[in-house]
Fold these 2 entries.
Entry 1:
Amino acid sequence: MINFHLNCVLSNNYLKNEKMKLKNKIAVITGAASGIGKAQAVLFASEGAEVIAIDSNIDAVKDVILEIHNSKGLGYALQLDVTDEKAVKETISNIIQKHNRIDILCNTAGVFDGFAKSLDTPLTLWDKLMNVNARAVFILCNSVLPHMIEKKQGSIVNMASIGSYAAGAGGVAYTSSKHAVLGLTKQLTMDYAGYGIRVNAVAPGLIETPLNRDFFQTEGSGIKEVIATIPVHRAGQADEVAKVSLFLASDDASYIYGTAIIVDGGVTATLT
Ligand SMILES: NC(=O)c1ccc[n+]([C@@H]2O[C@H](COP(=O)([O-])OP(=O)(O)OC[C@H]3O[C@@H](n4cnc5c(N)ncnc54)[C@H](O)[C@@H]3O)[C@@H](O)[C@H]2O)c1
């Protein structure tokens, strides 16, 4: 009886391992301490990836790694400000030295501008949004690309937004930064798809995360009215974005290059 039980457990584990979508992959995820990046880190680890969880908030990202380890997943946390070019280059180089490769990069770290209109956007806010949301993605991509080119494989998943297509998902700086992310995704594809590198993006609509906690929790913020305009009448959850990121990162998306998958409960379907 005990042997029978053991055999079942072993064969179930075997089947689970066989079906894992990212088995033995090395995945670097930025913004992994919170929201969508955290959901990606936990999901990717559950699918067999070793996750290098990067964030400026080291305590929170260490907690994510603890959660991963408690579920028997693999990974470790690194503190990094993704806008610091020198530190990013050093970090990526150290990771490659340690593992000999990076298979997946998720550029998920991001900041929001609270829907600030142009005349309410000081240059400091514009620079911050552009630095984290767009310039850092460029730096991270350029840091991993030479190694991916050498290996002739790699998958990059950038975090776009429905603000990559239209106004209104943020203020002027957010919308502009997310348009840049989609442009970068397309141009990198044109330039490097021939080396077997897939660069894609996920474009979420309204997702309930700490990024927009004020919007969700402040009375009179307009959140109810916004949710009423979403065809599905609810906000999305971080794991619903993580699942699409997993698909794009995995070999299931082997012929998907240079595009974004919109995860927005139908919002963009209503745009003319
Ligand atoms: N939440 C939404 O509705 C929504 C919609 C569309 C797109 N997005 C995008 O998804 C991504 C994740 O957003 P979220 O909602 O999970 O936000 P979040 O605030 O929950 O998480 C963002 C993470 O990025 C980290 N981060 C910020 N600046 C950093 C820096 N300079 N260096 C390193 N780490 C840094 C933060 O510490 C945080 O852990 C962002 O790019 C955001 O623009 C979010």
Entry 2:
Amino acid sequence: MLPIVARRLFHLQELALGRPSFRILAELLESERWSPERLRQLRLERLQTMVRSAYDHTPYWRELMKTQGFTPEDIRCLDDLRRFPLLEKNTLRERREEMVWRDEGKRLQLVRTSGSTNEALQFYTSSTREAQINAARMRGHEWVGVRRGEKELYYWGSPVELCKQDRIKRVRDWLINDGLTNGFEVTPERLRKNYGDWLAWGPKCIFGYPSTFVLTVTMAESLGLNLKELRNRGLSVIITTSEMLSDVDRKLIADGFGVPVRDSYGLREAGLIGHECEHGTMHCMDEQIILETIDPETLEPTEGEGELVVTNLVGPAFPVIRYRTGDIVTLSQEPCACGRTLSSIKISGGRAVEFVVTKAGKWVVGYSFIYIARSVPGIVKFQVVQEKLGEIFIRLAVDERFPADGIELVKKKAAQRLGGDDEIHVEIVADIAPARSGKYRPVISKVAEELYKKRSFTD
Ligand SMILES: [Zn+2]
């Protein structure tokens, strides 16, 4: 599809879904160069409007403000935000139904976070909020030279079986120049095929998880596939998301594909938080969010470095105010060579995702187990552990919604996903403790670690 036509079709799709994403994009491309004072004024106005509507339309926030002894009128400067207590994940989980404004915007939906780093979480979103996120994402891509309508390949996960809706989505994606390659289960055979498909389609940008790119580059090398060929077919940038991108991995991916790697950072429940510009600075979406840092032990505010706390200014259907993310970051106001006045963020706490390897030599991305955890109710946390080849343990922490045949269901779905005769054990545990680093690891595989060290990939 011609980029200009694809862009137009995407625009129409957004309007049909009640999302003025392109209008917001145009605004964002202006405000990113405003003076700090003007930007601060916009954020204060948005904060005041958001707090007002939270008070007027949601019992949880109204009750909270009353208990804390203040009203929306008391929010007079950005620092007044600190009158709100921190919002814990558990509160969001337990009081969700009292936090939603059901009549806001269009297409109110209950959605779920990936739950890869923390326990999966459900929250509400609406057309208003989705339009803001789509616009912010489009702006980030424009910063690194990719305009909506140009060919973007999502190296991503996909469900085990395609339903009718997925098929319709495939056609729609083709019309708007979005491609999809399954990046959840990488095998040498599939990589050869994907490589051929990518050369034929010629994406301008590939978007996916750092771990999948690292595996792809390493495997391609051992198979003799030259990923740099994709440059001749138009590839100009790799954009990563969802996991910690280390400097070592960034270099490995950039060397493998021969194009720059740009990172982005978002949390489904809080919005898109940062996107790297052409100079490699990760700028914050200051028009849409307010970021703070705290000491994770004492919960006292810190100057720049600490646990990230997010307030979303543009999602009135489900206000998220002073939400503790659990991610460790450094915030900065230092100017960037690109001239944008937005602040910037560096992520220092890892969000590493790993693989399990099947007897048949298939590398299955940890994220793919999220689809399984999502499809069975009542799974609060999960962890996949692989000590030796051919044997996989899935641990689940569940609540009362978990069905009687839940274990069998998980086993069946995991077998489908792994697609071999690997032994799968599913057990219910009281809780899943984080690793010593304090980070929750969804997948721990000694097998994958050892094979990866030896670069041992078999067909
Ligand atoms: Zn910049």
